[in-house]
Amino acid sequence: MSRLLDLLYPPVCPGCGELPTGGGPLCERCRIGLEGLRSDGSFEELLRVRMPDFGLVVTPFEYAGPVRAMLLRVKHDGDRRAASCLAGELAQVLAESGVEADAVTAIPMSAEKRRIRGFNQAEVLGRYVAKGLGCSFEPGLLRHRGGVTFQHTLSREQRAAHAAETILFGGGRAAGRRIVVVDDICTTGASLLAAVRVLREAGAAEVVAAAVAYTGA
3-state SS of the chain: helix, strand, coil percent to 5? Predict the structure, then answer.
């Protein structure tokens, strides 16, 4: 049935809405654009200098062009094709970085915000990352204390304090395990760092912070 639907309604490029070429999910223009947005590692290094607690941070793309377009589709529409494409890229970079994970989790969202949006885009991405890494997806490892705060309204210092107060251990088995924490976008790194610290305190053997894209610092 899915093949018949693809013939009748060919899937479009999740980056621009045009018909893809070359057999992949993206059109040629978006494929080229994606390659031009790959991280050179300087953002991750800056985060580690500013926040030495981080350890390994993986953010493969700059938040611009087709990456931004696809992340907005994931964020506002829960677009599974865009999520699969971007999470697949993230999983590949994690694997190439030598990451071996027992579980993937995601930056949690407050219940209030989830009711507004209907889903947590970090979880949508995290499920695909776990599939790419061949491990379990366990969103319950982290939880959000509650409340609605829009991160873009906060300073770097306020983001760090807010994340530390609201991102908590959710339960489950963290001790002795290698865990990857996934978010959609990393700006200051506050949410990811708070999650890394929480999981380490819960006994995780290794915690890797990962986001599809970075913007600012």
Answer: 50, 15, 35
Alpha carbon 151 to chain centroid, angstroms:
16
What are the Cα distances from residue 94, in Å, to 41, 114, 132, 180? 13, 28, 10, 9
| Residue-range domains of the chain with CATH | 38-214 (3.40.50.2020)
Lowest mean pLDDT among 21-25, 83-87, 140-144, 206-210: 21-25
- The per-residue pLDDT for range 40-56, each reduced to its tens digit, is 999 999 999 999 888 99
The H or E element that residue 58 is part of is strand 57-58
Lowest mean pLDDT among 31-45, 149-163, 172-186: 149-163
Whole-angstrom Cα distance, residue 189 to residue 209?
Answer: 9
Q: Name the nearest CA neighbour of 106 among 20, 29, 25, 212.
A: 212
Whether 8 has a pLDDT exceeding 70, the answer reads no
* Contact indicator for 94, 180 with CB cutoff of 8 Å: yes
Residue 150, Ramachandran bin (φ over 0: left; ψ between -120 and 50: alpha; else beta) = beta
The model's pTM = 0.90
Residue linked to tokens 């809405």:
17
Res. 60: pLDDT tops 90: yes
